[in-house]
């Protein structure tokens, strides 16, 4: 359509002249697919623009386009946002500096992923039809997407370095203001478990707060390590002790939650079906050497990794659960590997309430790769996961509903042992400074207690490290 093309050129001209507030008027007359594509393109170009500029573009979309899909001839605001959110999690093509530190590159990339949530945190004008529902949908979507990102960001920020996980903290800052609004309007979305989303968000908020206190302590510890113990001033020692105690205190508050355990939903997601149903876990990851550099994957390495992932569970499990593993080099960026795990859902892992809050067999397999403890694979090589999704699927392999319990369980397998090991590290530091930690014995009991279920979240190497600290 020539008219559409002319209109599109004019819209991009307005956009290039910083007249974002005008683009919606004209874009609303474009064919549906052109309108969506154009707005997605503009939003991606303005991802790191000022709040004022982004808000102009947001207003232009929310005021002049239908909010929900319905009219086949017109692009809607929801469709644009969903596309923007989806694309923001995709692996970007282009060069990856294989000699640079993987953790730092992932840390910087997390900021771009987080920035997209700002589109959902703007306040729509009161002139928009059914503004309360629109506001509630935006906040609900922001919560859902933030929780997805929090899980991924936690897995890329396990390294014991002072640098903060900036993506996660950016999300927390974006949602601080919107979450002050009453949640009543969100509760009107009956097909969503709003209280579950809110609980998970609060869980991540507490986790990243603990993480920040640890990194603050680590920064002080590293600075003090550059000075000989005899030359440390009393003030520097006291500062280190205070930071260590704060780290232990905040972490233990999270670990000791009995009524409301971390990252366990208030009500379990129950999936019942008479048909055979399968579970799938899709991950995009970089294989990382102990030095922090990444490996360049090829077909041979993928085959070796695939075999190692199979070997992380028993042959009986592979057979009974019909486990399949596929690993290939990503077409979008050949430094990444794409891993797909698939197995039969069974009672306690996919069907009915989860037997344990550890994500089941697929999380177990992925955790072995993530922690660098795969049998028959290069020692110490870890899978640095950049994107993670879990699904229920049918016998033909068509994806159905998200299997969120798997990803949450994987996060529990990875985050909680690391949190405990960090506490042990801090406790050792306190002892070296002449302070006896109050809660050290409690920490040891926590790991051994069958009530917490923490023990089986630890891998063999993590248990060895725990005993070494002990």
From TrEMBL:
Keywords: Membrane, mRNA transport, Nuclear pore complex, Nucleus, Protein transport, Translocation, Transport. It comes from the Eukaryota. It is found in: Nucleus, Nuclear pore complex; Nucleus membrane. GO terms for cellular component: nuclear membrane; nuclear pore outer ring. InterPro entries: Nup84/Nup107. One of its GO terms (biological process) is protein import into nucleus. Its main location: nucleus. GO terms for molecular function: structural constituent of nuclear pore. Functions as a component of the nuclear pore complex (NPC). Belongs to the nucleoporin Nup84/Nup107 family. Part of the nuclear pore complex (NPC). This is Nuclear pore complex protein. It comes from Opuntia streptacantha (Prickly pear cactus).
């Amino acid at each position: 359509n020539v008219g559409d093309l002319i209109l599109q050129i004019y819209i991009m001209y307005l956009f290039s002249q910083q007249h974002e507030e005008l683009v919606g008027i004209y874009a609303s007359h474009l064919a549906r697919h052109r309108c969506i594509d154009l707005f997605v393109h503009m939003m991606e170009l303005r991802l790191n623009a000022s709040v004022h500029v982004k808000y102009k573009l947001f207003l232009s979309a929310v005021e002049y386009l239908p909010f929900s899909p319905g009219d086949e001839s017109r692009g809607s605001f929801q469709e644009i946002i969903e596309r923007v959110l989806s694309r923001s999690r995709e692996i970007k093509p282009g060069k990856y500096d294989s000699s640079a530190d993987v953790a730092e590159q992932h840390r910087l990339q997390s900021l771009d992923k987080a920035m997209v949530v700002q589109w959902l945190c703007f306040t729509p004008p009161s002139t928009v039809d059914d503004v309360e529902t629109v506001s509630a949908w935006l906040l609900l979507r922001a919560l859902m997407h933030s929780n997805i990102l929090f899980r991924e960001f936690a897995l890329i920020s396990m390294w014991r370095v002072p640098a903060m996980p900036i993506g996660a903290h950016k999300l927390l800052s974006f949602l601080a203001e919107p979450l002050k609004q009453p949640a009543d309007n969100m509760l009107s979305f009956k097909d969503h478990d709003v209280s579950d989303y809110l609980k998970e968000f609060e869980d991540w908020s507490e986790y990243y707060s603990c993480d920040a206190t640890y990194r603050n302590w680590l920064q002080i510890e590293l600075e003090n390590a550059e000075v000989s113990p005899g030359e440390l001033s009393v003030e520097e020692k006291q500062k280190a002790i205070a930071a260590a105690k704060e780290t232990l205190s905040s972490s233990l508050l999270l670990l000791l939650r009995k009524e409301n355990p971390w990252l366990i939903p208030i009500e379990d997601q129950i999936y019942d079906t008479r048909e055979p149903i399968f579970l799938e876990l899709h991950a995009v990851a970089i294989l990382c050497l102990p030095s922090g550099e990444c490996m360049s994957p090829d077909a041979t390495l993928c085959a070796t990794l695939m075999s190692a992932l199979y070997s992380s569970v028993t042959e009986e499990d592979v057979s009974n659960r019909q486990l399949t593993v596929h690993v290939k080099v990503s077409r979008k960026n050949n430094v990444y590997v794409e891993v797909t795990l698939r197995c039969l859902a069974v009672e306690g892992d996919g069907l009915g309430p989860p037997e344990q809050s550890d994500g089941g067999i697929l999380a177990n397999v992925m955790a072995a790769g993530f922690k660098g403890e795969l049998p028959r694979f290069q020692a110490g090589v870890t899978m640095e996961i950049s994107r993670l999704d879990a699904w229920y699927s049918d016998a033909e392999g068509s994806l159905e509903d998200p299997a969120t319990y798997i990803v949450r369980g994987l996060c529990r397998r990875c985050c909680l042992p690391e949190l405990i090991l960090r506490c042990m590290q801090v406790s050792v530091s306190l002892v070296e400074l002449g302070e006896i930690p109050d809660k050290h014995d409690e920490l040891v009991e926590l790991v051994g207690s069958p009530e917490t279920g923490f023990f089986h979240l630890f891998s063999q190497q993590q248990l060895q490290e725990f005993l070494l600290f002990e």
